[in-house]
Amino acid sequence: MSEDARTLARLRWRSRRGMRELDALLTRYLDQCWHAAAIDERDSFERLLACEDTVLWPWLSGREQPEDESLNALVQHIRSLPVRP
């Protein structure tokens, strides 16, 4: 298994949260954007995964915004991703 595949598998595991809605949003980002993401965006995603579900859900549901600009940009990006069947 390549290093990139191991990283993706680790992130996919960390994206499994206590809420199905969070799982769907975070894994959608991994599936649609991770491979093309810049290093800064990848770093922001890892920082996002370090947040508690009680913080993530208000951000990803649009009720609140992160104060950190890079996290806010990533949250907005994740929220804008199309749902694919």
Describe the model.
- The protein has a single domain (3-80), classed as DNA polymerase, domain 1.
- It has helices at residues 3-14, 20-32, 39-49, 53-60, 69-80.
- It is an all-alpha fold and 85 residues long.
Distance from first to last alpha carbon: 28 Å
SSE order: HHHHH
**Gyration radius, in Å:** 12 Å
Q: How many separate domains make up the residues?
A: 1
Total number of helices: 5
CATH class: Mainly Alpha
Count of extended strands: 0
Helix content: 55-70%
Looking at how many chains there are and whether they match, the oligomeric state comes to single chain
Second-tier CATH architecture: Orthogonal Bundle
Brief sketch in words of this structure:
The protein is built from 5 helices and no strands.
How is this fold's topology laid out?
Elements: H1 3-14, H2 20-32, H3 39-49, H4 53-60, H5 69-80
